[in-house]
Write a structure and sequence with these properties.
- This protein has about 300 residues and is an alpha/beta fold.
- It folds into 2 domains: about 240 residues, 3-Layer(aba) Sandwich (Rossmann fold); about 35 residues, no CATH class.
- Helices cover about 40% and strands about 20% of the residues.
- It is built from 10 helices and 9 strands.
- It has a 7-stranded mixed beta sheet with strand order 3-2-1-4-5-9-8, sandwiched between helices. It has a two-stranded antiparallel sheet with strand order 6-7.
- Helix 8 crosses helix 9.
- The longest helix has 23 residues.
- It starts with a helix and ends with a helix.
- The relative contact order is 0.09.
């Protein structure tokens, strides 16, 4: 087992032993991944990637199969990768990736990629990474990704989930680990420009009709040639839900700004807002704009 700080980095539950949760959640995700694969699927002779593997919470549950196929893992977090390399490699293979593509694989090298709790935090460069995963998958290869959908919306935002008013919603953008929500229609409309959507799995509902508080999953199959970032991101002018989703994101961002400004009172609000901008991807554009304003016309 990894040290507690590595085990809890990929999730924990208050009051539950962190290593027990790490073990049980990893086993549950492995079972979910297998449930999405075709009945005839075999790992022998295939190449798999856990994109965002952390300290191997899911990947470790494939150790019995790792002698029959290639099981790769990658993550931004160097200490997690170091731990896997020291304790589970071989048979697992892993490496540290960067914030932006590429990955060190040839075109069409992989048969299967899963990304759990990854696109839930990727903001501005989501289209670059989707194109890169498409590149390294073989034709017909499978991509499985979890996303924040109706199962977590109400629990995290304390308001009803309205599918037609949610697209890709980014919150806490200036903090480490921002929240990125997706709706099923938006994923089909945008990710479906690059992949065939095989299945979308939403959380089961309880007796009260509310969904279980957990991630949703999308299962896709690679098709055709790559497209461009611009085409993946482009809003369809004939899809009214695009505008509704943008309005929702604007409303929620305004609420976030009001919360940040109100938390320290009027005197400190300007300083707080400046700190938030400087810690976010807006830092570069804000500085360039400031320099232009100081220079004058």
């Amino acid at each position: 087992m990894p040290p507690v700080e590595l085990a809890t980095r990929v999730g924990s539950v208050e009051g539950v032993d962190p290593h027990s949760f790490y073990e049980s959640e990893g086993a549950a995700v492995r079972a979910r991944i297998e449930s999405f694969l075709p009945p005839s699927w075999e790992f022998t002779g295939r190449r798999m990637l856990d994109f965002g593997c952390g300290s191997g919470r899911v990947l470790r549950h494939f150790l019995p199969e790792a002698g029959e196929g290639e099981f790769w893992g990658c993550d931004l977090h160097g200490p997690s990768i170091d731990w896997i390399q020291a304790n589970l490699s071989p048979p697992l293979r892993c490496f540290k990736n960067e914030l932006d593509p590429p990955l060190p694989f040839a075109d069409g090298y992989l048969d299967l990629i899963w990304a759990t709790s990854v696109f839930t935090h990727i903001t501005d460069n989501w289209s670059s990474w989707l194109l890169e995963l498409h590149r390294v998958l073989r034709q017909g290869g499978v991509l499985i990704a979890s996303y924040l959908g109706e199962g977590v919306w109400e629990a995290m935002l304390d308001e009803p989930y309205l599918e037609d008013e949610v697209g890709m919603i980014v919150l806490r953008h200036w903090q480490e680990g921002p929240w990125v929500f997706h709706s099923e229609w938006w994923l089909r409309a945008h990710w479906g420009r690059l992949f065939d959507v095989v299945r979308v799995s939403c959380p089961p509902r309880g007796e009260d009709g509310r969904p279980q508080v957990t991630h949703s999953y999308i299962v896709m199959r690679k098709r055709g040639a790559a497209t461009t970032r611009e085409r993946l991101e482009r809003c369809s002018l004939t899809e009214p839900r695009e505008l509704s989703a943008l309005r929702t994101n604007l409303r929620l961002l305004r609420a976030e700004i009001e919360t940040v400004l109100g938390s320290a009172g009027h005197e400190n609000s300007r300083h707080l807002l400046r700190e938030a901008v400087m810690a976010s991807p807006l830092r570069g554009p804000a500085r360039r704009l400031g320099r232009r304003l100081r220079r004058g016309p």
